[in-house]
Design brief:
The protein is of the alpha/beta class. 55% of the residues lie in helices and 10% in strands. Keywords: Gluconate utilization, NADP, Oxidoreductase, Pentose shunt.
């Protein structure tokens, strides 16, 4: 007789922790399956208090589940996910629900949802943020899929999600790939946030000579204000850590080559396809790539730099400038991320509620931060904001920080210290607010060498110039 109301397939650390989270909630009995049976046995043996039902085969898993059957896949993205989906489809029935909880590329989720839908089974791509700890204690959850599937799945996810101000950090994001898309953008913003924090640390250390432990105190103080966030909090902990072997700050022992798992690059690649500038996120991705080119960097260490040594006249004032630059650049990263979500929603027909996205990021996820409440409020007040940074709160914040932001970018450039996320974010801000950009010249160049045409400021239509030395002839182009 079926006894479980939810299943987890794939019992590596994330899957095991999610299964434990589910089993700890009243009303849940969790069927668990892993291709290697030993992992299933180890999980059950380690947690005898949990309401687990062991399944040795996919058929046993299906037989153990109440209808509509619901299974969450927690396996490696790509072919392993496709293989598990095929197995589940073979033992499930129309109306059942398959959930992919991995870090899948949203276009794969769109493809899978369309294929599974043909069988009458629901397919849900669910972004899960918060890492191993979040999976166990309460993640931020971003499920896509049909509204019908969410009627069954929603109450289960609401019980295991992180909670912020009494509200579970989960919402039905939209159809097919919407959930995984929003999770991808979350990770892109995460890249930018981490790079900005790293640049702030680097500038303070080089400019003031403060030790990592002293800078940790600065980040602690910042975490009590508008920059309050999980990433600021853990940065202070990382900077305080001392290497047991050498007695030096651990941050000085760690190789300065940052890794990446692909979601940041996906965010940038997708933004390019959508025609959405996410320059702050892009520079964060490129900064990791540059950091990993160790041989090239070593060969370039003797390239000429600034001739004068850099000194900061007022260290405390400089630290405050960096704080303001960090906050301003952080606003840009989130604004660009939400621009990408808006563009994708239009492209794919997703009805994504931007304020709801900010709401479910307030706890459980890596980019959780105090000012997500301000983002939620901004979209509640005006759901059709042309850009997040145009909301009154963020417009005022940028007005109060932009002078300090400029001083920091200038100081970094003069000192020869790379600050790509700070500087690109400022360039984006200035580009957005400019009354005229040099793109007019670019259009003239394109028309000259490729007859790509252009529009004019003084009349409607599309035009092409017959470029011939000193004499030109302008003609209207019929685009119909």
């Amino acid at each position: 007789m079926p006894t479980a109301n939810i299943a987890v397939v794939g019992l590596a650390v994330m899957g095991s922790n999610l299964a434990r989270n589910l089993a700890s909630r009243e009303g849940n009995t969790v069927a668990v399956y892993n291709r290697t049976t030993q992992k299933t046995d180890d999980l059950i043996a380690a947690h005898p208090e949990a309401e687990f039902v062991k399944a040795a085969t996919m058929q046993e898993l299906a037989d153990s589940l109440q209808k509509p059957r619901t299974a969450i896949i927690m396996v490696k993205a790509g072919r392993p996910t496709d293989a598990v989906i095929d197995e589940l489809v073979s033992v499930f029935e129309p109306g059942d629900i398959i959930v992919d909880g991995g870090n899948a590329l949203f276009t794969d989720t769109i493809r899978r949802e369309a294929a599974v839908r043909e069988t009458g089974i629901h397919f849900v791509g669910c972004g899960i943020s918060g890492g191993e700890e979040g999976a166990l204690n309460g993640p931020s959850l971003m499920p896509g899929g049909t509204a019908e599937s969410y009627e069954t799945l929603g109450p289960i996810l609401e019980r295991i999600a992180a909670v912020a101000e009494g509200e579970p950090c989960v919402t039905h994001v939209g159809t097919d790939g919407a959930g995984h898309f929003v999770k991808m953008v979350h990770n892109g913003i995460e890249y930018a946030d981490m790079q900005l924090i790293a640049e702030a640390y680097d500038l303070i250390r080089r400019g003031t000579g403060k030790s990592p432990a002293e800078i940790a105190d600065i980040f602690d103080a910042w975490n009590g204000g508008e920059l309050e966030s999980y990433l600021i909090e853990i940065t202070a902990e990382v900077l305080r850590q001392v290497d047991a072997e050498t007695g030096t700050p651990l941050v000085d022992v760690i190789l300065d080559a940052a890794g990446a798992k692909g979601t940041g690059a996906w965010t940038v690649q997708t933004a390019l396809d959508l025609g959405v500038p996410v320059s702050g996120i892009a520079e964060a991705v490129f900064a990791r790539s540059l950091s990993s080119r160790l041989a090239q960097r070593e060969a370039a260490t003797d390239l000429p730099g600034p001739s004068d040594a850099w000194t900061v006249a007022d260290p405390e004032a400089f630290v405050e400038d960096v704080r303001k630059a960090l906050f301003a650049s952080k606003i840009i990263a989130y604004s660009q991320g939400f621009d990408e979500i808006v563009a994708a929603a239009e492209e794919h027909g997703w009805e994504i509620q931007k304020g709801e996205v900010a709401r479910i990021w307030r706890a459980g996820c890596i980019i959780r931060a105090r000012f997500l409440n301000d983002i939620t409020s901004a979209y509640a007040e005006n759901p059709d904001l042309p850009a997040l940074l145009l909301a009154p709160y963020f417009r005022d914040a940028l007005g109060q920080t932009q002078e300090a932001w400029r001083r920091v970018v200038v100081a970094a450039a003069q000192a020869g210290i790379p600050a790509p996320a700070f500087s690109s974010s400022l360039s984006y801000y200035d580009g957005l607010r400019a009354d005229r950009l040099p793109a007019a010249l670019v259009q003239g160049q394109r028309d000259f060498f490729g007859a790509h045409t252009y529009r004019r400021v003084d009349k409607d239509g599309t035009f092409h110039t017959q470029w011939s030395g000193d004499r030109t002839e302008v003609e209207a182009v019929d685009t119909h």
